[in-house]
Fold:
Amino acid sequence: MPLGPVDVYVIGFPDNNFSGEIVPAILEQVDKGVIRVVDVLFVTKDDDGNVATLSIEDLGPEGAAFVEIDVLQAGALNEEDADEISDALENGSSALLIAYENTFMRDILMAFARANAVPIDHIRIPATVVNEVVAG
Structure:
């Protein structure tokens, strides 16, 4: 079965404060079938501005919860992705890149195909922007 659309979120951790607190929320969405995790990549920038990628095992006890996340295609996120976000990282901080398939879209995309319709574009409006607009 083909994949649905894939989003990549970049989640910052100032001062390299990794926490497993986000893992239950991710796993809940996986268990519900809303998303499927394609890959995760941890990126860190030291105090001198040097960028490195980290495996889950490199995170120590703080990253233990991330081991619970099953990924579809390890290595889908790579050094190129790390380089792309490295300018946005402050020295002494880290980021988690998580690529996930929006599985809820598969049936809709199959309906498009049956109707001989072709998606032309996809625009994602960040939640912070939506909430600002709604709050007025």
Remarks:
- The chain has four helices and four strands.
- The mean pLDDT is 87.
